[in-house]
Each structure stands twice: as structure tokens, then as C-alpha cells.
Amino acid sequence: MRKVIALTLLSVAAFCATLAAQSGALQYTNDGQMVLPKDYRQWVFLSAGLGMTYKADAAPNANPPFENVFVNPKAYQEFLKTGVWPDKTVLLLEVRASESRVSINKNGRVQSNILHIEGHVKDHAKGGWAFYGFKDGAQKGTLFPKTADCYSCHGQNGAVDTTFVQFYPTLVDPAKKAGSFKETGH
Ligand code: HEC
């Protein structure tokens, strides 16, 4: 009997773990690191910035990286309806190197290996938005302290609630309709 209960508990735990992974639920390790959602490549793709730079005098980059932005599907659906990010929103920035002369390509740029990944998550239980960095293929992200420039640049220049919705084309209209869109960067 005990064995049956133990087995049942085990399968319930396994089932919950699968559900959590599939739903892209926000998960942390015991020491407060963010777990990289395994299925984020099946989430909603918001945009790819190429070689973006924020300084007026920056030299052009001969090898500009791509920045792919993904969001968990539940938060995306909610944003389309309300123009507001719900609690437990997870946004990921996947930075990839770019290359030009690959295969038949003679010009323009294509994406290659992952350089690093960053996370921006909204979690009321942890006091609101927070940034995490996943270095060198790490599956766990380290929290950036509130003094990091992530918070100030995103806070001042992000069009909606510290996120860069002005660069995510399908979200601009829902945000403007909801009145959550703030004009920035002029
Ligand atoms: C000088 C301004 C600036 C700083 C500093 C900055 N970011 Fe961003 N961040 C941006 C811009 C602009 C985008 C939109 C990228 C795009 O469109 O490809 C962005 C997008 C993101 C996204 C995608 C979700 C969102 O919030 O829109 C994440 C995640 C992110 N940044 C993480 C970080 C982290 C982590 C740091 C600090 C280590 C950081 N950023 C520092 C300007 C900044």
C-alpha cells in the first residue's frame, strides 16, 4: 500500500513538473535563481533587433548580433486583450551572433550561435519586475541588482511598464488602445 502511495505521489509530482514546463511557468531554484524555461523557443516571437545601439556616436558594428524577443503565450494573449502585462509575465532576450557568407548567401545577415540570454519577469511575489542573466549556456539565471543599468534604461525608455513594446510590432496597437503606451526616446 505504502509503495502504491509513493508511486502515485511520484507520478503526480512528475505530472506537475511537466505541466509547469509546458505552460512556461516561472520557476526559481531554492537560492532565488531563475530557471530557464526549456520550451521558450515555442513561445510567441515578438521581434528581432539587429545590432541595436543606444549611443549617438557608436561606431557601426561589422558583425552585429541579433536580439530575439520571446514571451510566454499566456501573457501575450492577455496583453492583446488588455494592453497590460499580467503577473508572472516572462520575457526572454536571446542574443545570437550573425554571419553573412553562409551557404548560398552572399549579402545580408543570418543568425548563428547563442551568445547569451537575458530574462525580464514580472512577479508581484518578488516585488515586481526583475532582470536575470543566463551566461554561457547556463540553465539558471542570476538576478541583476536594482542598481544595474537594466532597470534605469528600461524604466525611462520602455514604452509599456518597463518593456520595449515600441519595438514589438503586434503589441503597439493593443497598448495604444488601452492607453498604456508611453512615447519615449525623442
Ligand atoms: C540603454 C538601454 C538598455 C539597457 C541598459 C538594457 N536594455 Fe534591455 N532592452 C533595451 C531595448 C532597446 C530592448 C528592445 C530590444 C529589441 O527590440 O530587440 C531591450 C529588451 C530587453 C529584453 C526583452 C524584454 C523587454 O523588456 O522589452 C530583455 C529581457 C532585456 N532587455 C534585458 C536586459 C538586461 C538583463 C539588462 C541589464 C543587464 C538590459 N536589458 C539593459 C534597452 C536596454
Question: Care to describe what's here?
Answer:
This protein is an alpha+beta fold. It has a single domain (27-178), classed as Cytochrome P460 (Chalcone isomerase, 3-Layer(bba) Sandwich), CATH 3.50.70.20. The protein contains 4 helices and 7 strands. The chain has a 7-stranded antiparallel beta sheet with strand order 1-7-6-5-4-3-2. β6 and β7 form a beta hairpin. α2 (73-82) crosses α4 (169-178). The radius of gyration is 19 Å and the shape is globular. The termini are far apart. Heme C (HEC) is lined by residues 47, 49, 52, 54, 67, 69, 91-93, 118-120, 131, 133, 144, 148-150, 153-154, 163-164, 167.
What class would the helix/strand composition place it in? alpha+beta
Compressed to H and E, one letter per element, the order equals HEEEHEEEEHH
Strand order of the largest sheet: 1-7-6-5-4-3-2
N-to-C span: 69 Å
CATH architecture: 3-Layer(bba) Sandwich
Query: How would the global form be characterised?
Result: globular
Helical segment count = 4
Strand content: 25-35%
Using the coordinates shown, work out and report the CATH topology: Chalcone isomerase
What's the overall average pLDDT, rounded?
Answer: 90
SSE inventory with pairings:
Layout: H1 2-23, E1 34-35, E2 44-50, E3 66-71, H2 73-82, E4 90-99, E5 110-123, E6 128-135, E7 140-143, H3 149-157, H4 169-178
Antiparallel strand pairs: 1-7, 2-3, 3-4, 4-5, 5-6, 6-7
Helix pairs in contact: 2-4
The structure holds heme C (HEC).
Heme C binds next to strand 2, strand 3, strand 4, strand 5 and strand 6.
